[in-house]
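yo

u said u wanted the structure for the complex thing, so here. seqs first:
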Amino acid sequence: MNSPELLIRYWAYMPQLLAGAITTLYLSATGVACGFFAGVFIYTLHASRNVVLSGFARAYVSFFRGTPMLAQLLLFYYLPTALGLDLPSTLSAAIALTLNTAAYQSQILGTGFNAIPLGQIEAAFAFNLTRRQTLWRVEVPQVIRLTLPALVSEMIDIVKASAVISVIAVTDLMRVSQQLASVTYRPLEVYTLGACFYLAITTLLSVAGRTLEHRYAGRS
Amino acid sequence: MGIDAFLTLAPRFGAALSVTLGISVAAAFAGIVLGFVLNVLRMTFPALLKWPYRLYVWIVRGTPFLAQLVLVYFGLPGLGLTMSAVQATIFSLAIYSVAYFAEIFRASWASVPIGHLEAAHSMGIPRHLTFLKIEMPQAFAFGIPLLANQLILLIKESAVASIITVPELTMTASDIVASTYSYIGPYAMLVLSYWLLTQVVGLAARRATTLVTRHQRA
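structre next:
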């Protein structure tokens, strides 16, 4: 393997790998963002005094944290088909990622919510804010700051977990690597480059997270 | 989806479960032993090993396990190292888990207050005895929950091996679905199997944690 030739080949792989990386990032970001709101919702169910609702939340979290991402993905890809719905694979992947991260985020955000002083909630009620207003205007902004490291960690986990969506033919970074490897018959260099892309993404996320933490810490 | 369908599927799932468990336990065993050794080496030769260790952990924890697995299974033959799917999975999962276990051990050892080490040193207790009698018990009390959690994560990660056709749980379920065109039964059994597995390991983990932290409670 000649070094300049290798670099020339790597340069040729770049456009497709970049497109795959963008798909990966896009689906992961969508999953985490939607999962955030779903996670808040699951937390409210979990903290509810209604036994049915909190039981459902507990079962939900137990299911999504106790089973592999791949199994969940296959479930949400094939079940709609069995029920007659025809979902595009990208949508199935996004749904699976969202539901999965919602379970983890509900736990992460839960620790954050519990750390908010009860006095603030009482004050909010004293000022006649509704439960919903208290949640979204008082608690949620604080909970992000409180749990930022864990949230960034979860984001990185979702980017890594998203690699399995290649199985249902979504052209993410992993899928593009596999396609390139089968076309060029050079799996070692293609997969190495693909792995480097993932490493770059997770490292950037990690650095961005640390920067955000420092900025938040400086302000408070 | 009747009871007879369940009974026909059960043996195949049983075999698949043993493959999943076998792979996960083998990789976890290698991971714990080698991770422990790696941590000790890192503590013994800090100048030499600090940066290689951090590089290794950064790469292994920064990339998806699937990416590492396909690299090992499809890429290494290019360097002359060919392995069967199961061997590649155990090998790759072991490399993956060593990084995580080494980090857990690193955190566990860091949790021991340095005052204990200083006190032991000032009392003339030899280094190896400090390690065995003072550091290790405290480190393990801290680390057992983390180690058990990592084992659960490993079991879940092993599902990825289905992509390179290792006959574990996910692969078997997909196989059954492909041959019988019934989706709900096999996939329901699949998630149930994993869920039961993780719950059992979680329960054992909680028992083990209670056992090792006995000395901290009244």
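Chain B has a mean pLDDT of 89. Chain B has eight helices and no strands.
cya
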